[in-house]
Amino acid sequence: MAEQQKNNSEVFALRPTPMNERKSMLDMVWVQAGCVICIPAFMLGGLVAAQMPTWTGVAACGVGYLLTLILMIVLGIQGADLGIPTCAVSQSTFGKNGTRLLVSSLFAISLMGFFGLQVNVCGEAFANLMGDAFGIQIPLTLSSLIWGIVMSVIAIIGMEGLKIFDKLSVPLLFIIMVVGLVLAFQKYGTAGITANEVETATMSFAEAVALSFSFFSAMAFTAADVTRWQRNRKDTIKSSVWGLMPAGLATCIIGVLLARIAGEYDISLVLAKVGIPILGLIVIITASVSTNSLNAYCGGLDTIMTFNLPDNRRREATAGVCFVGVILALTGILGYIETFLNWICFLGAPVAGVMIADYWIVGKGRPESWHKVDGWNWTGCIVAVVSMVIALLLYNVLHIGVFNLNGVAVAMVLYVIAEKFFPSKSRKLDGGTKAFVEAEREEPANVS
After folding, report:
1. Burial of residue 420 (number of CB atoms within 10 Å: 0-12, 13-18, 19+)
2. Which of 271, 256, 287, 225 is nearest to 52 (CA)?
3. From the centroid of its chain, how far is CA 393?
């Protein structure tokens, strides 16, 4: 069995990742950085630059990234401790049935939809840039199909494929980003920084923090999907810090500066304007592929849990996520349901809050006290739903706080209170992680 796991680790989805197969801290830094060097990060810089003074906006984005980082570390350590992805970790908090219906199904739908959206964005950008810069007309359908297949192949290979791609793409992206910024300064000069400066902010500091946090909090909610490949808590913290903060802040700052001096936050378009469209093409492709391949990878894990598929069908489940996502992209329907997908993503906040309270407060952060619960863990499920409603009321009716942060905080408080009166099933059995790992090794779940 050990040899089979060594040779085919990414065939399986939910079983604990053996320690000898886990990645180095530096390997995972590249994967984490690849998540945040993306077009939405440049867009964040552009949105902030349009409504706030430059360095105030950068500071607000930094605070938002810091909040995302804290959440990512807290949830990510659970994955490193147990060696299992988010949907498997949550079997303690919500029970297996609760996880399938409340966690995995929502994340699977969201990730599948966003995979399709990013395929469409990448395909359209590639087709437009090839037409404008080189006079080569590529149908949008064909362009989207090509890049959807590329992203699918990397996701199906698994974490090793993601690691190799990000090791190559992240340094290249950093170099091109710096080159693009220098060329933009040479073409447009530095006058735009002061000439286009926002004197009166139309967005508050708190709103900018909320915007920054909302852009990337979904990545934190599923942090365990990546950090289960880490060897220990220390490596998890290091890889999250060095992966998220430098890459995220650098991308945001470049987006802000480009919006000021060139009137365009998208570095690929700026590079086309300064006469080097091929570099812009590399940016749009590599940034989209690195981020979106991880969407498909995580979606495959959630699909296994949602449909109770055999655990050794990770590659097939990932391929299914990619296939449906590409079909949705080609039909154009995703443009009409993007808001729906965002709302599904927002539902991850109360789920994350309950998971944090269950593991760190009720379970005192001890992995040996964790175990999966068959059926339903009603305490966690009810608290998550109630917290979502309260978070909506606080944000939309009372205009207090940030929806995602509200959801996390309210869920944590309510779960701790509920545990005092209605103790959940999550801590009533003995054996914990050790028993879970031994049971999985002896009789792998759902393997046919």
Report:
1. exposed
2. 256
3. 26
Residue 352 has pLDDT above 80, yes or no: yes
CA distance 149 to 49: 35
Return d(Cα 94, Cα 102) in angstroms, integer: 8
d(CA 199, CA 45): 17
Whether the pTM exceeds 0.90: the reply is no
- The answer on pLDDT for 372 being more than 90 is no
Query: Dihedral sign, CA of 154, 239, 88, 220?
Result: negative
Measuring CA to CA, how many Å separate 384 from each of 99, 101, 344, 406?
Answer: 11, 12, 13, 12
Q: How far apart are CA 102 and CA 107, in angstroms?
A: 9
Phi, psi values for residue 406, rounded to 5°: -60, -45
Nearest of 16, 367, 160, 432 to residue 2 by alpha carbon: 16
Q: Which of 141-145, 387-391, 438-442 has the lowest mean pLDDT?
A: 438-442
pLDDT category at 132 given cuts 50, 70, 90 is confident
Measured between alpha carbons, how far is 374 from 354 in angstroms, rounded to an integer?
18
Instruction: Decide if pLDDT at 1 tops 80.
Output: no
> What is the dihedral sign for C-alpha 261, 263, 265, 266?
negative
Biggest distance spanned by C-alpha atoms of the chain: 68
The gap between the terminal CA atoms of the chain, to the nearest Å, is 14
Distances (CA, A) of 337 to 21, 299, 330: 39, 18, 14
Angstrom distance (rounded) from CA 142 to CA 124: 10
The sign of the CA dihedral 227, 231, 234, 240 is negative
